[in-house]
Amino acid sequence: MESSSMYRSALGIDVCAERLDWHRLPGEEHGSHPNTADGIDALVQQLRQSSVDIVVIEATGGLQRQVATALVAATMAVAVINPRQVRDFAKASGQLAKTDQIDAKVLALFGLRLQPVPRALPTEAAQELADKLARRNQLIEMRAAEKNRRHRASTIMKRSIDRHLEFLDQAIKTLDEDLDDTLRGSPAWAEKVELLEAVKGVGPQTLRRLLIDLPELGTLDRQGIAKLVGVAPLNCDSGKMRGKRMIWGGRVNVRNTLYMAALSASRFNEPLKAFFQRLKAAGKPHKVALVAVARKLLTILNAMLRDHAAWNPQLATRRG
User: Fold this and answer.
1) Helix residue ranges per DSSP H, the chain
2) What's the pLDDT tens digit per position in 30-73?
């Protein structure tokens, strides 16, 4: 974080499907616009006339995308914030009441007090890949639900479920092929694909997840990337009490996929297998050792992309 005077003004926007409620600090200027193309254009024009240092928007499952993109296109600094951070900040500030206008004011205050760093929004191509990967997740969940229903279904219903399962299998296969073709055929990702897929334990699904849902891979240091994903153990100490270190937060889908990659790497990737066995021999619980493998694998992949370096077992042994 820079100096607390980095942003002298902030605008919070609470986004819902129908409306954009906003509040500007310092001062008590506030208002509302329809969450439509015309409404967004009107908001952008208004902000151009009364400049603001940072616009803070809460991530709302994609509803914020259109307004955030328009603001960035108008060369405004935009920070899209995790909702949990905003709720924790509101509680810490003593703000327990909740309305759209209050939420907008809390977001503006968040911008002034915590000085969030504006993040570059994904390109249209990157966002399309993220949407396809999210759709794949939905299809996987549908398939799992249908398989669970099949165990209790009658013979007639099983036929219906089987037809739906065939459709879901084909839809997932089509999406996988589309994702892989895009990643391998684009100069922006092709080199990264070639580097990462040479590492044992990094399968097609891990490759897609890392490149699409973790675009910061290769741009941060090892502590930063581990914390971003949520594989950095966090302290829980107070006075003389030393609590158990835990991992939490971060990007859950990336962490879950990385954990499955660690299961494979702990068996088939020689440097990581040796690392895992050393931890087990030292008395570490099985899951703790696997999380450590996941973190080490992540930091290795991060270093490879950062340095544009091919997989090297000798270097991997030393990195940690």
Assistant:
1) 37-49, 65-73, 83-92, 100-114, 124-150, 155-185, 187-196, 204-213, 222-229, 252-268, 270-281, 286-307, 313-318
2) 999 999 999 999 999 998 888 899 999 998 878 888 999 899 88
Close Cβ partners of 53 (under 8 Å, ≥ 6 residues apart) = 6, 7, 8, 9, 10, 77, 111
With tokens 């835990």, the residue in question is: 246
Cis peptide before 26 (omega within 30 of 0): yes
- In whole angstroms, give the CA distance from residue 23 to residue 182: 40
Is beta strand 237-238 parallel, antiparallel or unpaired with respect to 241-242? antiparallel
Residue 57: CB partners within 8 Å, gap ≥ 6?
Answer: 12, 13, 15, 64, 67, 68, 78, 79, 80, 81, 107
Distance CA 270, CA 276 (A): 10
Owner of token pair 């409306």: 19
Question: CA 112, 116, 120, 121 torsion: positive or negative?
Answer: negative
CB 207 within 8 A of CB 304: no
Distance from CA of residue 107 to its chain's centroid? 20
List the 19-25 sheet strands across, edge first: 29-34, 19-25, 10-15, 54-58, 78-81
CA distance 75 to 92: 32
Whole-number Å distance between alpha carbons of 80 and 12 = 10
91-116 pLDDT, tens per residue?
888 887 788 888 999 999 999 998 88
